[in-house]
Amino acid sequence: MCGRYAIDAEVNDMIIEFVLATGQSPHDWRPGWQAEQVFRPTDPVPILIETLVDRKDPEGPTQRRAEAAQWWLTPSFAKELRGKHPTFNARSETVTELASYRGPVKRQRAVLPARGYFETQTEGKTKTPHFVQAPEGPLFFAGLYSWWADPRKPETDPERWHLTTTILTRPAIGDVAQIHPRTPLCLPADWIEEWIDPKQLGTAEFVASALAASDPVVRGLRFGPAPANRA
């Protein structure tokens, strides 16, 4: 599971570079978080996405951008913004089967950049918080996004629409398997474009390919004590 993760100045700079490359202004999307920050479920978090200009034309032009999304995916058919069942993580093994995710995984996939994430190791009654990160460079979590329209607001109200997201998880391998059986699906950097490409249909086979590509990244993850003021 991934219930808290952090960005730092390097990750923030990488997101800004992505934004500038799309022609956006960093001020168009950043909702006031700091260069170094810890995110928790339901917080607004930065996601990198690519969307079809015309959703009815899956082979048409696309547009990349960074957005702020609620870290708690709300499917379009939901009756409320935050349901009682947690949706900030989605298991990669079943993401193409479950109703909440099988729609978004087809063409609404996101990347969530991070410095690392927090995980608690439980041994008996002892709980030890750890911070998990790559030896060098940021992590790129595979995610999904979904737009939810508040039925209580009129169609002309700009606050009617809410962008939401989730992080895919996978079985842990390597050192991190010592502290928890699950870990975020961490993509290699050269998979970012492929993962967010809406022209690529998100089938079970495609998700399996992303899972296999993530193996070297996950095996290389390292962990240490979580800073007391950040855990």
TrEMBL record:
UniProt entry keywords in alphabetical sequence: Covalent protein-DNA linkage, DNA damage, DNA-binding, Hydrolase, Lyase, Protease
EC class (word): hydrolase
InterPro entries registered for this protein in UniProt: SRAP, SRAP-like
Gene3D superfamilies, per the entry: SOS response associated peptidase-like
Pfam family, one: SRAP
Domain of life: Bacteria
Coiled-coil annotated residue ranges, if any: none
Enzyme Commission number, as recorded: 3.4.-.-
Family of this protein: Belongs to the SOS response-associated peptidase family.
Name this protein carries in UniProt: Abasic site processing protein
Organism: Arthrobacter russicus
The organism's taxonomic lineage, starting at the top: Bacteria, Bacillati, Actinomycetota, Actinomycetes, Micrococcales
